[in-house]
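Section 3.1: Structural characterization of target chains.
Under the original work plan, the team committed to producing a structural model for every single-chain target entering the pipeline before any wet-lab resources were allocated. The record below documents one such target. The sequence was received from the expression subgroup and is listed exactly as submitted; it comprises 426 residues.
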Amino acid sequence: MAKQVVTRTYTASIRNQSQVRDDLDALGFAASKLWNVGRWVCDRVWSEIRHTPDHTELTAYLKSHERYDDLHSQSSQRVLQELAEAFKSWYGKRQNGDERANPPTYRKHDDKHPRSTVTFKAAGFKLDTKYNRVRLSKGSNLKEYWSDFILCEFQTRPDVNLSTIENVQQVRAVWTGDEWELHFVCKVEVDVSEPSGEKTVGVDLGISNFAALAYEDGHAELYPLNRLKQDDYYFSKQIARCDGSNSDQATRLVQKRSARRTHYLHTLSKHIVQRCVEGGVEKIMVGDLSGIREDEETGRSKNWGRHGNLDLHSWAFDRFTKMLTYKAEMKGITVEEVSERNTSKSCSCCGRKRDANRVERGLYVCDSCGTTANADVNGAENIRQKVSPNSPNLSVNRSNGWLAQPSTFLFDKETGVFVPREQVTS
């Protein structure tokens, strides 16, 4: 077994909750106030020069503001970094044609500031693993003559021992809705399995099928967006019926929808990695979607249609790729992102490139060699071939075979796993 350093986050409960809750509340409220001040600055800058300030600019603007000193300097920097990232994401969506994308909102709950997550980096906390205590620094404005820090007594799961972890990078104080808890972000060394084979697989991510896989040994799989789309439709309807988007009910619904999406992505990435282990896969090639919104020839934004544009922005492709990468690495499988250029319009059998060959979203018909294929599987096979050319043991005539009739796996809500289409519980 090989060794590898990975990032892990461990959750801990706070045993002296009643003693530290007020102080943590003050920090959580301060983080929301700083976010709102930064949000106001971003709004003014955008109105004046149509520019979204990055993290460095926001910090320069607000370093002398009194709200900045409510938190430890590194904690304040993290709040502004999150705000800058949120504005960058919104601006990217607007540039790519999503007219319904909204900028990050002010953090308000009626007339009160909510409790935001507070992040403490190396200089902002001191960990005592012998007695399971951690000191969290206050900002200068919140320090009192007898207390410059918050001393939290914590308890982790029985299988987690922080005393054996040499590198705890961050501590986050997170409000769960009922109480505060701590998240320890650590670098840990883990055992990594040796690869089970030498085969390759290509993964095409999309807006109809979340993932299409083409394996080197000659079979393919589709993972449609059935469950995510049903959840998105259901929760959107429920949220629309709430008394305002900031109501307690709407907030709980948003959190539940987010939790379901996260579970879906974790389950799918785990399932794909397991399939690769069983199939003797050594390397996974994933299409790089950084330019998915741009036309390959004109450089202009593509128009996928109203629903297509909305769906494309809803699914966290980048987040999924990161999950897939670290899960695969644990099994000794490498993940490589490769360009998707021309993969949707090229024939994976003869290489003929022609837009018209993609008859419709789900069908690819080559006018040169006559190959008929599922369009997403054809794209996945082209992605695979960018790194690993055709294997000689593949059938010469793949048309109307595995390229055209891939296996389909759907998320089963009863069992919470992916199963072949015919096994799905209705």
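Residues 293-301, 306-314, 392-397 have pLDDT under 50 and may be disordered.
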